[in-house]
Amino acid sequence: MKLQTFLNTSERGVAFAQELTVNGWMNPGDYALMLLCISGSARFISEGVDEIISKNTGIMVGSFKYRIIERSSDFCMVVCVQTYDSMNQMYDGKTLFQFKKMMYRPRFFPMEEKMAVGCRFLLERASRAANDKDSLYGDEIASCYIKAVLYNAMDIWEQQHKNNSISEKRETAISDQFITLVHEHHCKTRKVKDYADMMHITPKYLAANVLNATKRHATEWIDDYTVREIKFRLRSTGDTVQQISTDLNFSTPSHLTKFFRDKVGTTPLAYRKNAQD
To answer: Of 4, 243, 257, 267, which one's alpha carbon is 20 to 30 angstroms from that of 233?
Structure first.
């Protein structure tokens, strides 16, 4: 599955929710989700977030646990699902960065019905294009549709948060700059201090602002980008573990293997074998 769109009330939607649910909480893991409420209402709960969603509300969901409760009898959502590995393959660097910037915490996009209908159309067309085996440019077509959804969402978000408090704006600005730098330099360094030095602030101040804004530690962001880079190299190149460890500044291939196994649950060579099967 590169990219798939379905209703949460469909057989596929029910099965997918069951797949992600652990102890009553949805955990997207390696999936990026775009949700669009098309009828009814419900309550969305995540860490530090408790919000009512209703018809024509879009939501971006990344790597954080959440629950949707107190659904009305007519509650229904369009669910667009994509793996992060697939995103790395389908989107260019700028689009990929914007996705990750928007998905580090829950984002809500109440919109007019005309725009909501358009977004639903774009999500469904993207899914159809990505899974069209006869198309020579299915991924590229899907990417264009998703970009349109993403930039509409960003525009809505910016308009809705013009008047945020100074502290919220500062935390967001620092976090966005940090994530930009990690996106650019994760192959060179995995030290929070190095990123703090680039930003001319202390590591403690950087870590506090990133945690407040994203609900994730700065080290988690760095590790996340590092894991994705290793996966991409294992899946898409013939580079040896030795080459990858050198390029990503691990002290030894064994150090990279331990890091990867701790984060992914398998060795680099096992991951490569599974990706090629």
So the answer is: 4
